[in-house]
């Protein structure tokens, strides 16, 4: 994964760090790896578009300035996993959730509208996974648009057809983005996890799951150990 991936959206799932700062560093390393630059060449910051606070969706910063357009990032945590998304196609949102967490009482009342609740009732045995497919799609959409929970998630209507390749956003009231400009893709987030990524783009981009790629070495540092020292070893020396 390098800058040749531009136009694509890549999602990487890994083991969760001990704290949120560690997960943000993982996002930073993933972004640097995709850009093919040293990790010190990029920084990730969070700033709320509404109040200016240090929360909200993460953004790329260079030289202390928010880099607008070109590259977009998102992060989500659940269970023992973290998912990060890097997009060169448009604003992105990623969400993963645990089947165990979704079993909490009262979840459906704040997450779903009447039609969705009816669909969950009909789904019966498959309802737990369908519930999370709907919820992660809503969360991913609201992250990608930047609206967050300022928009009532019950009014964000998502369809997850049984044989469809991807979830479909049907309605997004109160947002400036047209539903047709938001593209969704479900992905395998791991055991007992469900994941969805959303991208705001004029055309559906390529969305794929990738493996972590290390950032480029700092300028002036070789990308592999120098072998000069080994040449100076005597033939009689052995290795442990």
Helical segment tally? Answer: 5
What is the H-and-E element order? EHEEEEEEHHHEEEEEH
Uncertain spans, ≥5 residues at pLDDT below 50?
1-6, 223-240
Per the principal axes of the C-alpha atoms, what is the gross shape?
globular
CATH class: Alpha Beta
Question: What can be said about the biggest beta sheet?
Answer: 4 strands, mixed
Number of domains: 1
Total beta strand runs: 12
User: Looking at CATH, which topology would you report?
Assistant: Ribosomal Protein L22, Chain A
Structural class: alpha+beta
Overview of the molecule:
The longest helix is centred in the middle third of the chain and has 19 residues, at 127-145. Helix 3 packs antiparallel against helix 4. The protein is of the alpha+beta class and 240 residues long. It has a single domain, classed as Alpha-Beta Complex (Ribosomal Protein L22, Chain A), CATH 3.90.470.20. The strands form four sheets. It has a four-stranded mixed beta sheet with strand order 5-6-1-12, with helices on one face. The protein has a three-stranded antiparallel beta sheet with strand order 2-3-4, with helices on one face. The chain has a three-stranded antiparallel beta sheet with strand order 7-11-10, with helices on one face. The protein contains five helices and twelve strands. The radius of gyration is 21 Å and the shape is globular. The chain has helices at residues 20-35, 107-111, 114-123, 127-145, 228-231, and strands at residues 8-15, 43-46, 58-62, 65-66, 72-78, 81-87, 92-98, 157-159, 168-171, 182-187, 193-200, 206-210.
